[in-house]
Specification:
With 639 residues, the chain is of the alpha+beta class. Strand 10 (264-273) and strand 11 form a beta hairpin. The protein starts with a helix and ends with a helix.
């Protein structure tokens, strides 16, 4: 039994990260501290001065764990990783999880490529971006290949020059074919440099060149060529017009501001690269009603830059945030050069921050109706289900389904919905191991038992590790984030079964065997396999088929069914027919194909004797004996 008072006495006076955990073993808050002993004790002392959010959070704490770190900087990194992993209920959460695209120029190659990239690595390539629109990036790449005739293939040049015919891009005049030696590395590099100038915003040179070429083609009556050049000219002109000059050339910064209304906040970010605003984006955050702009922006900066691969040289904010110097040190380490967080007070920079704040307010006003509809179909729908079942709260729901064809390759699926939204990273598939034939009840019992026993094992491992001496927790931020990322460790507030009384009984039996108590609800179907009612605590509960709660239940049921069917279909694919042979020692791709070619199917291989197996040219005696040994063992297991 976890005694909070006793455990508080054991806290070390060292920097680290703490996790508050509720009665369902769910992490509800993650925080960092310079001194764990002082910081964690504050939560359980006099309630005066604490916000309603903190008071409510403390009332749900069942236990806490902590990890010490060598420095406050390590604690900051670990805190960011754990918040991203667990998405705790009482942390200020960034609702959007966006990955921005880059344009990568592979300067490490003798004939560089200009390509789309979702990540920015520390290599010899040069990266432009990040951009807020993947579509715009792809359009820009198409334009660059037309303008500069750069290669898109992945051939190793110059080693493979002349080894194959030029591709279609050469035929349609969108590649200069360095793969054939039609252009020297020096001339090709000039085109690459021009493309990088274009990406850097130097449009005047290319516009003048295109205008000159267009006039020359028209003067020579090459009207088709002139028309094609005119289209390129117009495309470049559109891109040039979209770029807004915001400061001195070479300036690289993000301008961030927010708008707060109650428990909603919108953060607006302007991305400025090479002195030009290349894009902007907005993010919604769920906050406590008492949170200040400083707290909101502080939480945003940590979460956003923990997830994005690109760090600017400067970040401009409207107000000071907590731990500014620490965050600057962290970001500078990631960037590889000095990163500054500034609060402009006057002039053009302050005006940009104010403009970001106005845009944040505009986005909030625009999205209120959309957010309201989204909340109705997710969070409020889950609350309606809880009310119908007489439960206090439903945050996490798990639904299970079984799929098979006459008992062949039976599989189970587990889908997870949190606050009414699918959490696909927690979806799991199960291949039925112990059940022979089309027995859905027994299969469901196996799936649920495996799921919760696995979860109990993970919880026990976490408890055992958290009870070790503090010095034993000397791990890196990345290791600690992985350590607490158990996929089954979170238990649901409600289990939804794809069926009625029988399936609910199987779920309760599995929970009983594991010593767990979780509400179980069945989704009762009509003759058309559509949900018509819920089965809970021995009775059917009617539900309004036009309500958002009913629509959410239907989405969950459909998703569980889809996930199971997809897995089952994959197992029945052609590749799976041969996969069992991969488990036999000495049988590789060549022998596997030879066996299938000779015997036609798995059953004939299973029945073949030693002489028949050795008659296959690719087989020898040892390999044939391994096949016999394998299928002999399989037959004994089946019996």
């Amino acid at each position: 039994m976890f005694n909070i008072e006793e455990e508080l006495k054991k806290l070390p006076a060292k920097p680290g990260v703490y996790q508050m955990i509720d009665a369902h073993d769910e992490v509800i808050y993650v925080g960092k501290a310079i001194n764990l002993k002082n910081r964690v004790r504050q939560y359980f002392q006099d309630s005066r001065g604490k916000s309603p959010k903190i008071l409510k959070m403390v009332s749900h704490i069942s236990r806490f764990t902590y990890t010490i770190t060598d420095s406050e900087l390590e604690a900051l990194i670990l805190e960011c990783n754990l918040i991203k992993e667990f998405r705790p209920k009482y942390n200020t959460m960034l609702m959007d999880d966006k990955a921005y695209p880059f344009i990568r120029v592979t300067l490490e190659e003798e004939f560089p490529r200009v390509m789309f990239s979702r990540t920015q690595k520390r290599d010899k390539s040069r990266y432009f971006g990040p951009y807020t629109s993947a579509g715009a990036v792809k359009d820009t790449l198409k334009l660059l290949h037309k303008l500069y005739k750069l290669r898109t293939c992945n051939r190793s040049l110059p080693a493979e020059i002349g080894k194959d015919r030029p591709c279609l891009n050469y035929q349609i005049h969108q590649c200069s074919a360095p793969c054939q030696g039609y252009i020297s590395a020096e001339e090709y590099r000039k085109s690459v440099d021009a493309a990088m100038d274009f990406l850097g915003g130097k449009y005047d040179v290319i516009l003048k060149d295109l205008e000159r070429r267009m006039k020359e083609a028209a003067a020579e009556w090459k009207f088709e060529e002139a028309g094609a050049i005119k289209e390129l000219y117009q495309s470049v002109g559109k891109i040039a017009q979209k770029q807004k000059i915001t400061g001195n050339h070479g300036e690289e910064k993000d301008v961030i501001a927010c708008h707060i209304e109650g428990r909603d906040a919108v953060v607006q970010t302007f991305f400025v690269r090479e002195g030009k605003m290349i894009g902007r984006d907005d993010f919604h955050m769920t906050i406590d009603a008492q949170e200040t702009p400083s707290q909101v922006l502080g939480g945003f900066v940590k979460q956003f830059y923990a997830g994005t691969p690109y760090i600017p040289v400067e970040i401009h904010l409207p107000v000071e945030i907590e731990d500014t110097e620490l965050i600057e040190t962290w970001l500078s380490g990631r960037k590889g050069r000095k990163v500054s967080i500034k609060v402009p007070q006057r002039g053009e920079k302050a005006a940009m921050v104010e403009l970001a704040a106005k845009n944040a307010k505009m986005v909030w006003e625009r999205d209120q109706e959309k957010l309201k509809r989204e909340e109705e179909r997710t969070v409020l729908a889950a609350a309606s289900i809880a009310s119908l079942l007489g439960l206090s709260d439903i945050h996490r729901m798990e639904a299970f389904d079984i799929s098979n064809i006459s008992g062949c390759e039976s599989v189970g699926s587990m889908v997870v919905f949190e606050d009414g939204k699918p959490r696909k990273s927690d979806y799991r598939k199960f291949r039925i191991r112990t059940v022979v034939g089309p027995d859905d009840y027994a299969s469901m019992l196996e799936v649920l038992t495996r799921r919760f026993k696995h979860g109990l094992r993970e919880r026990e491992e976490i408890r055992r590790e958290s009870s070790e001496p503090a010095e034993a927790a000397d791990v890196s931020a990345e290791q600690a984030a992985e350590e607490y990322a158990g996929s089954f460790v979170r238990f649901p507030d409600l289990i939804l079964m794809d069926g009625g009384k029988g399936q609910v009984a199987m779920a309760k039996r599995a929970l009983s065997e594991c010593g767990i108590s979780i509400p179980v609800c069945g989704m009762v179907k009509d003759d058309f396999h559509r949900t018509r009612a819920l089965y809970y605590e021995g009775e059917e509960l009617e539900i309004d088929t036009h309500s958002e709660a009913f629509k959410l239940i239907t989405r969950i049921q459909d998703e569980a069914h889809r996930f199971a069917i997809t897995y089952h279909r994959n197992l029945r694919g052609k590749d799976q027919i041969h996969s069992i042979l991969d488990d036999i020692e000495g049988i590789g791709p060549v022998r596997r194909k030879a066996l299938m070619r000779t015997f036609g199917d798995m059953e004939h291989i299973r029945q073949a004797d030693l002489e028949a197996l050795m008659a296959v040219p690719e087989m020898n005696r040892k390999a044939a004996e391994q096949v016999l040994l394998f299928f002999g063992k399989k037959r004994r297991e089946d019996k």
